[in-house]
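Please produce the structure of this protein holding serine.
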Amino acid sequence: MDKILIIGAGGQIGTELTGYLRTMYGEKNVIASDIRATLHPDLMDGGPFIRMDALDSRQVYQVIQKERVNQVYFLAAILSAVCEKNPEMAWDINMGSLNSVLRVANELKFRMFVPSSIGAFGATTPKKNTPQLTIQRPNSIYGVTKVAGELLCDYYNQKYGVDVRGVRFPGIISNVVPPGGGTTDYAVDIFHKAVKYQKFTCYLREDTFLDMMYMPDALKAAVTLMEADYNALRYHNAYNVAAMSFSPKMIAEEIRKHIPDFTIDYAVDPVRQGIADSWPDSMDDSAARKDWGWSPDYTLEAMTRDMIKVLTKRFSGRENHE
Ligand code: SER
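Below is the modeled complex.
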């Protein structure tokens, strides 16, 4: 029987992944953990929760051994814009926690999911149809930790046979817990502002194309890869996965089909614009499609329809209390 630990469960992806895995594997078999003591109520009430510091490899070892965990989803990380404000902390947390958990994986031999990102690419990477294997010279500290993380995972896999798998996620759009501190976050915030105020000020230029993905597809990607046949995985970690690519102008037009009065204006933040300009417009995910059957369900149109439906319902329920 599978026993799963999610590290960094309180974040944007972890909160929804925990519920998704509990539905699949049974609530008692999926342990949420985070350095924060209080998380989203769905997560705290829906099954076991352990407060844990991923930098503390002794504690990680003890929890995994005691609970007989055989799969770990490692989601502890600081996103790109916050990393840029404090590069030392970015390195210490993003690399330190990964290194700590990989060391334990080598001792206890559990399967591990480690997400990389479009942030692992840089200005010299081909921007369109970005290949699986290509130039990776990012100039953000977030990107530096992502490339180093990919290499460290490869190292543990090749040298010690640790079964560590991962994808390069695009920007993830979701409606439960906000991302916080990323460059792609505008594509989440735009929906909140469109539904609440019918207007949004964007910190990226209107023509900035980035890869994006709706949360249900991100969850499906992570779990499908973790369930895949080990021998079919040519790369193990850092698989490009893509779903949609759009610019702020395009998503605004799509939102306007549902909220005709919606307006967007622009106040460009040079830091996040610089990061976004160095990331791919659209990744080639053919290796993921071939090796483990990756295929997304949500287009820009379908995601927009769903986001607006969910948020309209949520905000109208709360209006009386605001
Ligand atoms: N969504 C992340 C960010 O913007 C990229 O992986 O930082």
